[in-house]
Specification:
The chain is mainly beta. It folds into 2 domains: 40 residues, no CATH class; 46 residues, N-terminal domain of TfIIb (Single Sheet). The protein contains no helices and 9 strands. The strands form 3 sheets. Strands 6-7-8-9 form a 4-stranded antiparallel beta sheet, with no helix packed on it. A 3-stranded antiparallel beta sheet has the order 1-2-3, with no helix packed on it. A two-stranded antiparallel sheet has the order 4-5.
Length: 92
């Protein structure tokens, strides 16, 4: 699915259209002539885990994995507290 007109996603193969749930922002990359959409404030699609937030001590957080260093090193797990939205990292 690709962004189209800043309000929906369109399948370039079959033409199916769908509006995203939640807010999103559309922007063009400077180096390439293509449009990207970034979902905002819709964390419900992220996995959750039981871990204590270092800021508010709540025991649940969303998490994602990102390759923040060289490809031969392990990825970084980034957490965001469900309650206070504080973000922190865990290096593996």
């Amino acid at each position: 699915m690709f962004p189209s007109g800043g309000k929906e996603f369109v399948c370039k193969k079959c033409g199916y259209k769908e509006s995203p749930k939640g807010k999103f922002q559309s922007f063009k990359e400077k180096s390439k002539d293509r449009e990207m959409m970034v979902l905002e404030d819709d964390l419900t699609v992220l996995p959750r885990t039981k871990i204590e937030c270092p800021k508010c001590k709540h025991n649940e957080a969303f998490w994602v994995l990102r390759q923040t260093r060289a490809a031969d090193e392990p990825e970084t797990r980034i957490y965001q507290c469900v309650k206070c939205k504080h973000k922190w990292r865990e290096y593996q």
